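Chapter review: from sequence to fold.
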Amino acid sequence: MSDDAWVQGLLREELRGRSAYGAPQLDVPVRLNTNENSYALPDEVVRAVSRAIAGEIADLNRYPDRDAVKLRADLAAYCGHGLTAEQLWAANGSNEVQQQLFQAFAGPGRVALGFGPAYSMHPLLAAGTATTWVDGGRGDDFGLTAAHAAEQARRHRPALTLLCSPNNPTGTALDFDVVEAVLAETEGLVVVDEAYAEFRRPGTPSALELLDKHPRLVVSRTMSKAFAFAGARVGYLAAHPAIVEAVQLVRLPYHLSALTQAAARAALAHADVLLGTVEAIKAQRDRIVADLRASGWTVADSDSNFVLFGPFPDQHAAWRTLLGQGVLVRDVGLPGWLRVTAGTPAETSAFLDAMKELRP
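The token string follows.
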């Protein structure tokens, strides 16, 4: 027995034997495994963020705005669709936003429903809040139909349903009929995780368009991806004001620092500049899809900044082959499949060159 085995005896049963969420952090020339934006902040944004942070430093002896009202107003303006600050809530990444939803609306004796393969953090959030997690599954093509989603909601009566659009790790987006079918079959909250929404292809809708019709709908988003702001840790949700008020019952005091709020507001003020990289990333995503399919690989349709591809007899062996070429991609634990982030043109070229060592 290891020296720290006693900890397992003290740990809550549903957490025993689990591993903490996280991707390998390796020092390699090309890192395409965490869906980060490969483009650094433009100089004008760096200067703006620096000024904003500098303006807060003298007052760090004081707590920040507990409710982040100005940031929420800026986020509402960015989201559009007539949203107001009362309908927005912000936290340290969309993970914390979703954790707060689990704390407020799920918990012991309640069920959370997801449709895997999907974001692997969701079951961990369920475990951390003693919520029963149910994986409703997807089709062989990684798609999710309204009929299947509705049947799972009807069967399990979830307090919280998680729908990812675009979905991680597959990149597939959802039609409105899936969201509305689940809303019709459950009395609980339905959360559409839109962490990659800015990368969706033309014609792919956002669930923000449905908020005015469905008071139990929540849309969560992040500034980590499209805004190239992963290091700042800013996520947010849009929902009915009553849901926003309820979430504040479980938020930690002063959870979002004054520096984070200032940095996020400066970034939002330069949204047009920051989002200028989105089209470049989408072009590389489409390049990866086209090249891999032309080479005989199967690739899931993607509305995100990453691509799921395969199949491999042993995806971890394929992962090691690519790593040997200096390219780090993500083994998401889905047998036969790997995921690659769309990066710069040079990073994409390095990945595609490395893929020549493998055969479909």
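Two observations follow directly from the output. The CA atoms of residues 157 and 186 lie 6 Å apart. The first strand starts at residue 30 and ends at 31.
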